[in-house]
Design brief:
The longest helix is centred in the N-terminal third of the chain and has 34 residues. 51% of the residues lie in helices and 15% in strands. The radius of gyration is 25 Å and the shape is elongated. By secondary structure, it is of the alpha/beta class. The strands form 3 sheets. Strands 9-8-7-10-11 form a 5-stranded parallel beta sheet, with helices on both faces. Strands 1-2-5 form a 3-stranded antiparallel beta sheet, with no helix packed on it. The chain has a 3-stranded antiparallel beta sheet with strand order 4-3-6. It has 3 domains: 199 residues; 91 residues, Translation factors (Elongation Factor Tu (Ef-tu), domain 3, Beta Barrel); 118 residues, Rossmann fold, CATH 3.40.50.80. Its cofactor is FAD. InterPro entries: FAD-bd_FR_type (IPR017927), Fe3_Rdtase_TM_dom (IPR013130), FNR_nucleotide-bd (IPR039261), MRET (IPR050415), OxRdtase_FAD/NAD-bd (IPR001433), Riboflavin_synthase-like_b-brl (IPR017938). It is a multi-pass membrane protein. This is Oxidoreductase. Keywords: 2Fe-2S, FAD, Flavoprotein, Iron, Iron-sulfur, Membrane, Metal-binding, Oxidoreductase, Transmembrane, Transmembrane helix.
């Protein structure tokens, strides 16, 4: 194959992902310190259980605010960390929040019961009836327990995304109820004007982030760009590409490797949001998504009519060339995971090797485009076919196809089983973690 090398892209000295992650950790640690300081400044109750309960409640409030920032889909963090990892952090912090708030309720109830001589159940009832805001806090805790239960892995797998998402929206009710409880009876909230200002600022930033990232920014971008379907092109019997055009698309900050949450505004589809990657690098004139028919949402794409209005949230994802660490790259795709790789290959500089894993030649979506693009870019393209067995992309096979793989960035996208197998092979080949880029294109972990 004749190769024409593109100039290598400059590699950042400090990884954007490290900067963003360190920034989030630093902000959380600083706020923990501030909350602890205000707690100590407010003074201690005579009962140790009440002291522990109040401290757990304050940390729970802080975690709840941090949770909102993680799911606000703020572009700066999303481009550097990725929605999948932010969602994973949100999940684990959510379980920490649940246990923290349970500890708050248990310690407070038993602490006051110890002082009053009532049993814990009657003490909780007495607090709910006599202390302003406690009943609202109990309702908030019940909502968070329900949400935590349906978010557990065993339950999440049994729920449709729309059902899970609807239940999860009650989190915002729980947040409002918990905040009103804090305002009503929070000792440290009213300990000083500085403490009061701090908590109001914290909650304003957290709720404001959600309002801007989840509502204002998507509405603004869709009003500005006026997206519509311009063409629907079947790629084979169960894969279809949809072309979308609009106004001023050169000002839409989308990059190859990212995805949108697509809503096609027809009678039966407007409420469905599906995460589909761009299958071509954005050129400022149109966007293209390519999807396999695996459910009602994707199967109905081929029936879309030209001119259909589109509401797209995004772009989202850190699966981009922003995170390059080496001049050359390897792209490993499985099945319809080729779609973001097709776009990345178009944008990548430096020498690239694309390994495309499918069951049969007929499953190789966009293969003609890939061959033409690889030839134009001077890239190497390998089509690996056969049954879905782990050894098809084993350590030995990857080393044979790309002998210098440990010196390259590796972009990986495919079915979970293939992804796990390839990640294991990459570790055995000595590919540094910082050089491996993979992302789940999904709405929830």
């Amino acid at each position: 194959m004749t190769t024409v090398q593109s100039p290598a892209a400059p590699v950042a000295a400090i990884r954007p992902k490290v900067v963003a992650r360190t920034g989030l950790y630093a902000v959380l640690a600083a706020n923990v310190a501030v909350v602890t300081y205000f707690f100590v400044q407010a003074g201690f109750a005579s009962n140790a259980l009440i002291v522990l309960g109040r401290l757990a409640g304050l940390y729970g409030a802080l975690l709840m605010a941090f949770q909102l920032v993680l799911v606000a889909r703020l572009p700066w963090f999303d481009r550097r960390i990725g929605m999948d990892r932010l969602t994973l952090w949100h999940r684990w912090i959510g379980f920490s929040l649940l246990w923290t708030l349970l500890a708050h309720a248990v310690f407070i109830t038993f602490g006051y019961a110890d002082s009053s001589g009532l049993d814990p159940v009657n003490q909780l009832v007495d607090l709910a009836e006599t202390v302003e805001g406690v009943l609202r806090a109990v309702v908030a805790l019940v909502l968070i327990i329900v949400i935590g239960t349906v978010s557990a892995r065993f339950a999440r797998r049994r729920l449709a995304y729309e059902t899970w998402h609807f239940i999860h929206l009650y989190t915002y009710i729980a947040v409002v109820l918990a905040f009103s409880h804090q305002v009503a009876v929070g000792t440290t909230f009213v300990a000083s004007p500085v403490a009061t200002g701090y908590w109001w600022t914290l909650w304003t930033v957290a709720l404001g982030s959600v309002f801007v990232g989840r509502l204002v920014l998507p509405l603004w971008r869709n009003w500005r760009h006026q997206l519509r379907v311009s063409a629907v092109v079947p790629e084979n019997d169960n894969v279809v590409s949809v072309y979308v055009t609009g106004r001023d698309l050169d000002r839409l900050p989308a990059r190859a490797g990212q995805f949108f949450l697509w809503r096609f505004l027809t009678r039966g589809r407007w409420w469905q949001a599906n995460p589909w990657s761009l299958s071509a690098a954005p050129d400022g004139r149109s966007l293209r998504l390519t999807a396999k028919a695996v459910g009602d949402g994707s199967a109905g794409l081929r029936h879309l009519k030209v001119g259909t209005r589109v509401f797209a949230e995004g772009p989202y994802g850190a699966f981009t060339t922003m995170h390059r660490t080496r001049p050359d790259a390897v792209l490993i795709a499985g099945g319809v995971g080729i779609t973001p790789m097709r776009a990345l290959l178009e944008e990548l500089h430096g020498h690239a090797v694309l390994i495309y894993r499918v069951t049969t030649d007929q499953d190789a979506v966009l293969y003609d485009e890939l061959r033409e693009l690889a030839h134009a870019k001077g890239a190497e393209l390998y089509l690996v076919t056969g049954p879905a067995e782990p050894d098809r992309l084993s350590k030995a096979e990857l080393a044979r196809l790309v002998p210098d793989i440990a010196e390259r960035d590796v972009y990986l996208c495919g079915p979970p089983g293939m992804t796990r197998g390839v990640l294991r092979s990459l570790r055995e080949l000595g590919v540094a973690k910082a050089q491996i880029h993979h992302e789940r294109f999904s709405l929830a972990g």
